[in-house]
Amino acid sequence: MADPLECFAVAAPGIEPITARELASLGVGDVATEPGGVTFAASLAQLQDANLRLRTASRVLVRVARFRARTFFELERHATRLEWDRWLAPGTAPAFDVTSKKSKLYHEKGIAQRLAAATGRTAAADAPTQLLVVRVHRDEFTVSIDSSGELLHRRGYRQQTAKAPLRETLAAAMLLGAGWDGQAPLVDPMCGSGTIPIEAALIARRIAPGLGRAFAFEAWPSFELAGWRAVRERAESEALARSPVRIAGSDRDAGAIAAARENAVRAGVAEDIAFAEAALSSLDPQDGPGFLVSNPPYGVRVGEEARLRDLYATLGKLVTQRLDGWTVALLTANPRLDHATGLDWREVLRTSNGGIPVRLIVHPAV
């Protein structure tokens, strides 16, 4: 049996514990959180499975080398010894993402040039590329190869977006962080282009989020189609035909709801979500108790907070009057607006969305 690969699932700051729980559920070994992600040990099949199933990670790296170098001569000596043929197919152009901190070799472009030369690859300008991530800290090099390709939040379904789109990985983290597991009704009354309800439908139906896309590891020399096909078929066999619970999304913006419906069709979950053009005040779930999970406006621009105070107050009243026993989870950026709801909250995580620091808060606060 081949030695396990040392892997690193990249996750947004604050999301790492949720990604770690996802990985533990996949049965991989040595799961441990680090700033910016989660380390784990995996076979090649498990690496492929992680790319296919992870809902909250942005990419999965394989750490292929560690060494110490303080001069370009040392760097070149180590780099020429790496097993480039194991990871780079003929005709593939390596692309290096280098970050160097507190090290003698601080010229990141120069490091990338030496590493590229060491691969022995010369490729045409339009050749396929393979990303390698190099981190240098206090003269210690860590070289990793990207197994994902496009970032994992790009599931392939979201071609239509509303004014403030929410990353698919963050929407999934909100749902999982709130404790929703696809076994209770769910509503998002400010759903925009539908990312939260769509991610909820994928969770409820146990659909692996990566089934509709390709991955970088498919171009590796070690790639075997039969093994990858088995990984995909196993994931496909676990999917449910329909969501076992009601999922609803509404928004007062007709264009947003039109985009949400189109995105749900591309995701294959259009029949699982009840979308409606409606104001927040019309919120009246048909069943429950369940979960309300939403990404309301943040009020970060000058003059917005006063206008949004009524929105948050309305939401608080609706929760009190119509959502007895429900769990409410909001992604927010302004504690004063949180307070305007009149509800007690507990903070589940802190991260950022579009460069804005945000918090996932949950009610009840127990």
Topology:
Elements: E1 5-10, H1 16-25, E2 29-34, E3 37-42, H2 44-53, E4 59-68, H3 72-79, H4 84-87, E5 93-101, H5 108-119, E6 129-137, E7 140-146, H6 168-177, E8 186-188, H7 195-204, H8 225-238, E9 247-251, H9 254-267, E10 273-277, E11 291-294, H10 304-322, E12 327-332, H11 335-340, E13 346-353, E14 356-363
Parallel strand pairs: 5-6, 8-9, 8-11, 9-10, 11-12
Antiparallel strand pairs: 1-3, 1-4, 2-3, 4-7, 6-7, 12-14, 13-14
Overview in brief:
By secondary structure, this protein is α/β, with parallel strands linked by helices. Helices cover 32% and strands 25% of the residues.
Structure description:
The protein is of the alpha/beta class and 366 residues long. The chain folds into 2 domains: 5-146, VC0802-like; 168-207 and 240-363, Vaccinia Virus protein VP39 (Rossmann fold, 3-Layer(aba) Sandwich). 32% of the residues lie in helices and 25% in strands. The protein has 11 helices and 14 strands. Strands 2-3-1-4-7-6-5 form a 7-stranded mixed beta sheet, with helices on one face. A 7-stranded mixed beta sheet has the order 10-9-8-11-12-14-13. Helix 2 (44-53) crosses helix 8, helix 3 runs parallel beside helix 5 (108-119) and helix 6 packs across helix 7. It is elongated and about 70 Å long. The N and C termini lie far apart (47 Å). The model has no long low-confidence stretch (mean pLDDT 94).
